[in-house]
Specification:
Layout: E1 9-12, H1 18-29, E2 33-38, H2 41-51, E3 55-57, H3 63-77, E4 82-85, H4 100-132, E5 136-141, H5 154-176, E6 181-188, H6 206-214, H7 225-236, E7 247-250
The protein binds nicotinamide-adenine-dinucleotide.
Nicotinamide-adenine-dinucleotide (NAD) binds at residues 13-14, 16-20, 38-40, 58-61, 86-89, 109, 113, 141, 143, 188, 190-191, 193-196.
Length: 257
């Protein structure tokens, strides 16, 4: 079925790679217009050229970049109904191994980036919806690691748990303010994207690492980007108009144990 996002205007962060890129592809398939953003402008420009979508550089940790991205959304799309905060970094290490810099960097990108994005986009969404009508949606990429902890992911566990709760606060703020804007979080387990490259160690192939990760999942394998992208289409479409403050696990049953 096409057209599930017809007439919607979206900004996606982390759109040069992995889940953000696949979400853009599915959004375009479903009739949305999308402004692609990423800090990696080389890969972003190439992906945007392939898809024929507008793009602008955006480091999600920088307030000034967000102001510029909103100006681009206003100029290139004429407004904004959807924000997907997909930009993120994985950080490995136990509480004893991690430097304060690594802990802070993980929170800067994953949490502060999401906070800045929600705050910036709400302004433009308010303006757009007041003028054009319709409904808005924010979707934040948390992780199953924001719900289930691991011994060697102290910073990532902490950051993704914060994204989960921040999303609920945003959802309640919008409801309280009478804004027709919903906010939800996605919680994938291991999905086959470049973010998993950091888990590959010398002497192990990527396929061996994915197979090992898959053995931790009740369904027996890691996920693929479309497993997440289709959930994003649903949660950002008006099909989900009564869904806000929700968290969707896309984890092959990991958290069901
Ligand atoms: N793939 C998984 O297994 C998985 C599982 C759970 C959650 N997630 C989350 O999903 C999101 C997307 O991950 P992915 O798998 O697509 O990873 P990815 O590494 O393929 O893509 C992440 C993108 O974010 C961009 N990025 C990094 N720092 C940025 C910054 N400061 N500003 C703007 N962009 C920045 C990168 O350039 C990259 O294009 C992340 O938030 C990640 O934590 C991924």
């Amino acid at each position: 079925m096409a057209g599930r996002l017809a007439g919607k205007r979206a900004l996606v962060t982390g759109a040069a790679s992995g889940l953000g890129l696949r979400i853009v592809e599915r959004f375009l398939d479903e009739g949305a217009r999308v402004l692609m953003t990423d800090v990696d402008t080389g890969r972003l420009e190439a992906a945007a050229a392939r898809l024929g979508a507008p793009w602008c550089p955006l480091d999600v940790t920088r307030e000034g970049d967000w102001a510029q991205a909103m100006a681009e959304a206003r100029a290139r799309l004429g407004g904004l109904e959807i924000l997907v905060n997909s930009a993120g970094i994985g950080t490995h290490g136990t509480v004893e191994e991690l430097s304060l810099d690594a802990f802070r960097r993980c929170h800067a990108v994953n949490v502060e980036g999401t906070f800045l994005g929600c705050r910036a986009a709400l302004g433009l969404m308010r303006e757009t919806l007041a003028r054009d009508g319709g409904r808005g949606a924010i979707l934040n990429l948390s992780s199953i690691a924001g719900v289930v902890a691991g011994h060697n992911m102290a910073a990532y566990n902490s950051a993704k748990a914060a994204v989960r709760h921040l999303t609920k606060s945003v959802a309640l703020h919008c409801a309280h303010a009478g804004l027709p804007i919903r906010a939800n979080s996605l919680h994938p387990a291991f999905i086959d994207t470049p973010i998993l490259d950091g888990l590959v160690r010398p002497g192990r192939t990527r396929a061996e690492v994915l197979a090992k990760l898959g053995r931790q999942i009740p369904l027996g394998h890691v996920g693929e980007p479309d497993d997440v992208a289709w959930a994003a289409v649903y949660l950002c479409s008006d099909e989900a108009k009564f869904v806000t403050g929700a968290e969707l696990f896309i984890d092959g049953g990991l958290a069901a144990r």
